[in-house]
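Late entry, written up from scratch paper. The run itself happened at the end of the previous shift, but nothing got recorded in the book at the time, so transcribing now.
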Amino acid sequence: MRRLLYGAVGLAMVAPFLYMVSVSFMGDSELLRWPPPLFPAEPTTGNYTAALGALPYTRVLLNTAILAGCVMIGQVLTSAAAGYAFARLRFPGRDRLGTTLLAMLAIPAILLLIPRYLMIEALGWVDTYPGLISTELVSVWGILLMRQTFVMLPRDVEDAARLDGAGEWTMFWRVTLPLVRPAVAALAMLAFMDQWRNFLWPLVVTRSRKMEVAEVALAHFHTAYASNWPYQMAAAVLLTSPVLVVCFLAQRYVMQGVRFTGAQVRL
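Output as recorded:
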């Protein structure tokens, strides 16, 4: 019974994506019928050809990959370093700072949009890769996740390394970080997928077509072809496919990381 329930929930979650793929192979006139068909009567790839012609697909994928890749690396490094500091180092105000970070999760991101834009504009980074990437390099959620990961590690290996004369940097980089590879992999994949679907900040900080990322390009495509749903679905499939492949490849690592870190963050 439980498996049947899980299967039904999973099917309900996947059904919109499957229907999107189905519509992307339909002709425009097919959707005018009632009730709308679930599968194309005469599948066609013309929608994909048209979408590739209308979208700067290669440029959009490059911009999105640069954004997601750089942010993924930045968030892994900053989250791991800060998480280790909160878990292992003693410094004044550590507990208060940790509580502040936890409280920051309740702040809506849209409240920080204008201050972030004003800082980027003052630096002259509007419509550039530094402006697009720099504000996303630190993840509060990632810091708390890595802190919890380091807290759960046994100290036996660290004590042995300290007896051998290892300093804090050696302890972090060569001893503890390799032990938390499942959590690092999970954080990396979640950061990558989160940035691939990032819309609001790229929409605000970019102005030209050459700097468009996937979600912004898809929104502009929707405006241009608002009445042609098969075109829109084909464009959505093209821009979603890369991150879908990454999601399938990284699913095992994400699940290992979630099990490794536990269900709660204790401060």
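The chain has two domains: 1-45, 57-261.
(Scratch paper discarded after transcription.)
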